[in-house]
Predict the 3D structure of the following.
Amino acid sequence: MGLIDPLLEKISSLLAEEYGKLTYLQSGITSLRCELRSIKAALEDLSHLEESSSLVKEWKGQLQELSHDIEDCIDDFVQRLGQDDVHDGLIGKITGWLKTMRLYHDTAGQIAKLKEHAVEVNDRRKRLKLDITPSCSSTVAIDPRLSALFEEADRLEGTKGPKDELVKLLTEGVDSLKQRRVISIVGFGGLGKTTLANLVYKNIKSKFHCTAFVSVSRNPDINKILKDILLGVLETSNPTSDDQRKYVEKVDEWPLETDRLIHMIKEYLKIRRYFVVIDDIWCRTAWDTIQRALPLNDSASQILTTTRINDVAIYSCLPQKDYVYSIKPLSSHDSRILFFKRIFCLEKECSKELIEIADEILKKCDGLPLAIINIASLLATKAATRQEWKTVLDSIGCAIDKYHELELIKRVLLVSYRDLPHHLKICLLYLSVFPEDHTIYRDQLIWRWIAEGFIVGRPGQNLEEVGESYFNELANRNMIQLVVMGYGGGPVKCRVHDIILDLLISLSTEENFVTILNGEKYISSSNRIRRLSLQGNCEDHNEWLSRREYSHVRSLNVFGDCKNQPLFRGLKFLRVLDINDFSQKGDNVQLTEVIGSLRFLRYLRFTKVPREIGNLKLLRTLDLSSSDVEELPATIVQLHQLVRLFLPPNVKFPNGISNLTSLQELGCFSCLGNSVGIVLELGNLIKLEKLHIFWDDDGTNGCLEQYKEALVSSLRKLGNQNIQSLEIWGPEACNVDFSIDSWFPPPRHLQNFESNVYLCFHKIPRRISSFSALICLRINVQHVEQDDLQPLKDLPVLECLELRRRRSNQELESLTISGGGFRCLKTFRFSFLLFDEKTGGPCILFEEGAMPKLQQLEIDLPAIAPDIGIRHLTFLKHLQIHINCWAASACEVEATEATMRSVATGQSQSQIPHT
């Protein structure tokens, strides 16, 4: 599916090259392209099937393997063609020509065999009369959300708080604000959106003239939905007249067009106060049509929607984005109560031998009500023995459809998976290579997608930008969970819910997408390995691994300590190698030598660097940050396609790093660990966008000023090019004023500047005011005076500011943030690396109009602090205050804490720890 588009692009490129003009190659390659297009169309049809027979699944697997074989053939041809492209002397040239002709002949033979195999696969479908068109079965499956509408409130846990919040949103201020209001509940499948919406509906429907509760689903019948709304509001009208009752009886029989239904609903509701719940919306177009029937009257009418997709939730609430309610998983406490109530009524009735297994089951469910309820319901039908419960626990991970209750969970989650376009399905399936509870860096995931060939370029966007859009869409659909956000509000890390991961593993295994080995399980559906994920100690599988053939492996991933692993031979087409967690870094000598011959490698994360690293001409990402590498081999400068290079501190570079012409991200570059000449070369990396510098001024033999001049020279060059992020870290306290004071002209595109806790500026640099593109600034300063804030106030796009202040002899009582500046700031952190023992440091005072868009505030305050003006921060959502208790009485601390809490109540989520 998603792999075929890049392959078609590759074949088209081949035909455009010189060797595409050779008749015996051109016809075969053209034929392969036609076959691939047919395979793509067939796989797209297959992806729409809700259910398919074993024969269809088998045929689908053959199509996928055929597409992989075609790609192997093309890759092998291109790689071998480029190996010996320079030949000296007449004999050398003749030898080279003969080798090339032999390669053309061999490749033509392989293409002929692949074409023959493609014809066989296609004939097999015709011979077996396989039907791959989506069926229109008359058998309708029971909607898994139906039970939520009839669930008793006293059987549910963790719903009271969310229900009360939504009721408050729907009813608060209705006397003064009469406009129609739309609230949307959003979250991934199984979190209980329908259940929560139904509880709210039952709680407040009596407050309205008429109500309706309708479900939309992924393939909505708009006419039926509109008719259900009309019937709902007619039947719930109070009082209901005889004419209305007759009207209701006839509506269901009338063949009404969409526009007619919209008009009828709108006319009926235009003077009535209504409450309508629209459950399970999947797209904007469905909402656009439905909401046309719901008038914008001034009767304080309310609409409550539910959806799995963030964009749909925001769109339905426009222009009030604050009315989007993100439903959260159940807490650990509520999960336990819900689980044990379904089986024993009370947890104390569960035997001690089952508690341990129950804890593992609840960890797997991770607060997902759908999973907790169905697994508990299943256990309630089993004998309360350790063996029975362990069997169910094991079934969650390896055979999710073994029991009806687990099949129900799978059906709910599959709806979201099947709604994905083809390219997102393949990217989501790739997440099955990661272990359970693994935190995944967004950028590393995108780089892997690119290395695997899942990303196809778009006009005006590079591969990374397209990959980011893929990631954002998966997050928007709540298929992945964002766990860490960076500056500018962008995601940094994500994870996959354990139950969703089990589904992905099941699908990946079925399609032979990933082979997974961990300490307990071996998960694979084929002897031909495409992607291998080793998780934990895999010594028990070493015999199996040693017998495998790895020539088709595209990705090899090791998580945890895989001791005594066999040497992987024949990794001919490997693109991704991630072995980052060895406990014994010195044991990788043989594998390090193998890596130097992996000419298709595009992503390498490892603990050693091979001497022959220059052979990896296609390498885009090299991550040695967890290694013990001290010096890079000279051949690294031959990696002209390298985009990202990550290193531990104090690594020495060879001369010629300016040859890394594609490099966009470099960290960590040790300035004083290299020669002044290499620091100067740094400025020639004109594509560099992100730079992480390690600055250690110890042991420079009196050359510190030369290094400073060299670094500033390079920064000036990079500032005129593409540099967007600069981080400067160091192990010892030292001053880095020079890094900004001498940076002129200012950088045109720099968005992020950060120093760690050891490196310090004397004051906030005045020149920073000219860094007009700056979005995030995190620095340490020795002194902060009132006027020092002025350079920062007028930065036009500054969103995140973190000032870490060191203690000084001259203390300031307060810093005042006045109105008229920091127009875009959303996050402000002001802290003290060392508190003053007498005063506790200055207070931050916010005047009216200060930081008008601030949402997150984290500050340090002395124990005796005045009203700091929190009430003036009208958009504040998160407040965290650290109180310095040094030399203060308990009463003074408590009084300050009480004051802060009182002004923060109702304005933000607050935390006020003592320091």
Notes: The mean pLDDT is 81.
